[in-house]
Amino acid sequence: MDDRTREHPQRDVAVVGGNVLTLTPQWDGGSVPGTVLVRDGRIVAVGPVSEVPVPADVPVLDATGRWVLPGFVDPHTHLGVHAEGEGWHGADVNEKGEPGGARLRTWDGVDPADQGFADALATGVTTVAVLPGSANVIGGQTSALKTWGGTVEEMLLRAPLGVKSALGENPKKNGSGRGPRTRMGIAAALRDAFAAAQRFAADRERALAAGERPGPATGADRDAEVLARVLDGELLWHQHAHRADDIATAVRLAEEFGHRLVLNHVTEGHRVLDLLRKHGLPAVVGPLLTSRSKPELRHRSLAVPGLLAGAGLRVALTTDHPVVPIQFLPVSAAFAVREGMDPHEALRALTLNPARILGLDDRVGSLAPGLDGDVVVWSGNPLDVMSRALHVVLGGRPVYRWQGRGEVLGTDGTWGTL
Question: What residues have CB less than 8 Å from 209, skipping those under 6 apart?
Fold first, then answer.
């Protein structure tokens, strides 16, 4: 970064001379030495160096010989609600006192000081979806956050994003004493919750038509109100499902109630590939770099992302941080490529695909005019495990740099060692 950075430390920057991979829907896999110009936090121009003039008042980040990509997006994390190494003190991810807590909100539990956010920046991850855990059948509302900021309000990209639900082993063994203990009980609980939401929506419609004022909302009413937004298609339904039969149950429920299903984990997705292809369902796959630590993971395979993508499905990769540390997101993609995934599709699985799956592609996931100025300069191909993120620009603001060691910009404007 040249000296002009000190004069404009906040929202304007030009990343110049790097091999730019735009990752837009039209991206053909190529790159060209180019410029990404960001003004007031948004990208205003992307193109060859000769075609994008840099205004004299804009700081220049020289990326010559480097790779320039959009910030990565991890679509399933527990950043800020499940801090590493803090035990119960940092565990705000599962409210086990609530077997069906659709009204719970992840962003009320996020700690921006969680070290995982700095680790994300060092890996080129600029956007994450924060989900509740999978102890409960309905865990709560999800949110999309940027990975830098002093308060949740500074970090929030979109909230609520959707509602998290879990099928299978985790809610069977980990839920509250009032929760179901079998797969058929879990499916019945979800049907009951959706039916209550339908009744709530119908009652509200009748009351409004009659000119009645609604009374004070109870907890059950607030849960139903949130789920009514899921059934209306306003909010996503993030469905935790590893095993093939649980994936099929998730599809069955979506057919019954019509919600926008996003499958998460999808460990045995290759065993129901025709079902997924028939419905064109997106898949958030991972975490890949785990042991077969429980029965649902007995068929875990690094080849699954490539098999699903090869079948024409939209695939995104996740670490499920802190299940797998977020630093290993690009490593996960590299291993998926080694096991057969197309390299260009692997890069999409870190950028455009998760943004599209989450409905955030109007803001993040590629380098195009109008999108957020989230730009990462890499030393080389991010799928090479020896490459590292050298500079991370978030919303036009340089927030991470490598200078023989990783440094993160503090909210006080000073740089600190990672």
Answer: none
